[in-house]
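Good morning,

Attaching, inline, the backbone tokens for the sequence recovery test we're adding to the shared suite. The designed sequence is right after.
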């Protein structure tokens, strides 16, 4: 990977303009999607377990007197406190027990984005208010102390920890003055002291930032967020040395081991049907040049890498849950919820630290939603926690 980046980024040091196009040469053509086998799993075998809530005292910034560290395998999720108007942060373990309230978002704020630093014991979240600037806050999983990292004059989103947990990359957005027209820039903030600086200047073409390793950030440059463009890498120590890694795609995620990019190979429109599919693929970064190694057709939804980078979990806007083998591209259908007893959309998916199970949220009308864990070895489902339908939209599994 470093040999590939050194090749590309070296050209950028000679001439900044050529750095944006010279490393990839001609645009890499998007390969035609290959046919993939879709394997149907057995019907849902559900083993519900009631999760009794045992809330601890909520606090805006102080930890409990004797906090219990929240280790790997805890599921952190949000609920809305209808009486106070604030978002609450809750935790439950993968056995569906010890469901507890951790904090209420300070000053009646709403938690509208959150992410964890694997192995670093930190949760970063975006706190939004009606009458004050948006904040990025840090929650320490060991001490359960909450603190302000920075307040932003513009909208901030897409918070991502560097692999070592020392920095966050995030996207800032602001209006240009024209109707529904925005420009974006990529910033880094130091977790220790809150020092922040831009690494990509304001432009309409800038997409979400992702870490390739502790030294490199990648993002998409495209005329519009719904269009494909160039996937660009930059060294955070020398952000002007940008180089195109791959063209004709939208970057969706980077593999945990840094050896591959997950991309969408087709542009999308504003209105997407639940059964409409788009070409997706994996771009390997292990050779002398990036190479598209797998392609498949998937409906719009959310994709999440397994901890070992060997598989991908996919939830679709139509309510399906799939498992994708990153090596051979095989797609296995795990659940089709809209046709099942618990009809409702899956909104997000995450992996247990060992990769042995998946956690997902499922809407179960009327008026309820729940977190479930699916054991991939036994194909059984466990209820972790239930709450009102409107109460949750975010969760993450601690690794």
């Amino acid at each position: 990977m470093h040999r590939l980046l050194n090749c590309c980024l070296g050209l950028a040091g000679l001439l900044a303009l050529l750095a944006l196009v010279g490393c990839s040469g001609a645009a890499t053509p998007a390969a035609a999607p290959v046919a993939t086998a879709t394997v149907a799993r057995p019907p849902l075998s559900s083993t519900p377990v009631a999760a009794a809530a045992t809330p601890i005292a909520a606090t805006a910034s102080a930890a409990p007197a004797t906090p219990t560290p929240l280790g790997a395998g805890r599921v952190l999720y949000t609920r809305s406190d209808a009486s106070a108007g604030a978002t609450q942060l809750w935790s439950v373990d993968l056995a569906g027990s010890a469901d507890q309230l951790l904090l209420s978002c300070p000053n009646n704020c709403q938690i509208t984005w959150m992410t964890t630093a694997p192995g670093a014991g930190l949760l970063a979240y975006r706190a939004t208010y009606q009458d004050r600037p948006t904040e990025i806050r840090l929650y320490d999983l060991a001490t359960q102390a909450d603190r302000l990292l920075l307040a932003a004059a513009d909208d901030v989103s897409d918070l991502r920890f560097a692999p070592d947990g020392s920095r966050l990359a995030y996207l800032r957005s602001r209006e240009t003055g024209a109707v529904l027209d925005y420009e974006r820039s990529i910033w880094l903030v130091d977790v220790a002291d809150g020092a922040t600086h831009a690494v990509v200047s304001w432009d309409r073409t800038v997409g979400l930032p992702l870490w390739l390793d502790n030294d490199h950030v990648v993002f998409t440059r495209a005329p519009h967020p719904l269009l494909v463009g160039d996937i660009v890498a930059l060294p955070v120590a020398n952000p002007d040395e940008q180089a195109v890694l791959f063209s004709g795609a939208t970057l969706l995620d980077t593999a945990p081991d840094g050896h591959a990019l997950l991309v969408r190979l087709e542009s999308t429109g504003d209105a997407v049907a639940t059964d409409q599919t788009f070409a997706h693929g994996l771009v390997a970064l292990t050779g002398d040049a990036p190479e598209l190694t797998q392609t498949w057709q998937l409906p719009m939804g959310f994709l999440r890498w397994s901890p070992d980078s060997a598989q991908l979990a996919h939830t679709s806007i139509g309510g399906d849950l799939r498992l994708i083998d990153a090596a051979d591209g095989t797609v296995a259908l795990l659940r089709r919820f809209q046709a099942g007893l618990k009809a409702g959309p899956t909104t997000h998916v995450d992996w247990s630290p060992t990769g042995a199970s998946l956690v997902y949220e499922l809407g179960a009308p009327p008026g309820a939603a729940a977190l479930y864990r699916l054991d991939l070895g036994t194909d059984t489902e466990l209820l972790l926690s239930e709450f009102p339908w409107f109460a949750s939209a975010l969760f993450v599994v601690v690794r």
